[in-house]
Amino acid sequence: MKTTDTQLTANILTFSQRYVEQYQEKLQHLPLVEHDEQWPSPCLQNKFDEKLMCWQPVEMQPALSFANLEDALDLVIHPSIVHYFTTIFSENIPASCSEGHLQLLFAWSEDDFARLQENLIGHVLMKQKLKQTVTLFFAVTDDDNIMLTVENESGEVWAERVGCKPHKKIADSLTDFIASLQPDIYIEPETD
């Protein structure tokens, strides 16, 4: 298990670095996010203009814990989802795979990590209420009704409609899935 966890961490770090490098290559600056003083993050770098800040993913040092989530749900969370959400702080990262376009979800800060855990608890409680297999989301797709999840028992990656059972297996593991991704550098068209 330790080798798989190490490989997943390496894949996340490599993918996020590739995203930043390709973004910089295309636009000659770090990725941008709207500046919000109420929503600080260790990802924020420098001011780009009056409204935007440059950002980049940063490794969590030390990694945060999922213990309170596991205690709240009385459930052991699959190690891959724990490693996924405790490797980096980051804005969502657009990516593409053979199935299409998606946004990888990450915690922006420690406060956002707490909010993320609350959302995961709500998702798991819904799955339990519907008597469905427990899954944990980690990405959203271009279709607002479909998210990507990790099946908690097996660690497999699935596509899943909100409130429904997973309907399409995407990868055998989160490690394999992250390794298959390409950064998606989409530039918003300028509007006046």
TrEMBL record:
Assign the protein's first listed, main location to one coarse class.
Answer: membrane
Any Pfam family the entry gives: Syd
Identify the species of origin.
Answer: Thalassotalea castellviae
Keyword annotations of the record: Cell inner membrane, Cell membrane, Membrane
- For this protein, the parts annotated as crossing the membrane are none
The answer, when asked if Acetylation is one of the entry's keywords, is no
Q: What does this protein do?
A: Interacts with the SecY protein in vivo. May bind preferentially to an uncomplexed state of SecY, thus functioning either as a chelating agent for excess SecY in the cell or as a regulatory factor that negatively controls the translocase function.
Family assignment?
Belongs to the Syd family.
- Look up keyword Cell membrane and say if it applies: yes
Q: How does it sit in the membrane?
A: Peripheral membrane protein
Mind telling me what this protein is named?
Protein Syd
Give its localization.
Answer: Cell inner membrane
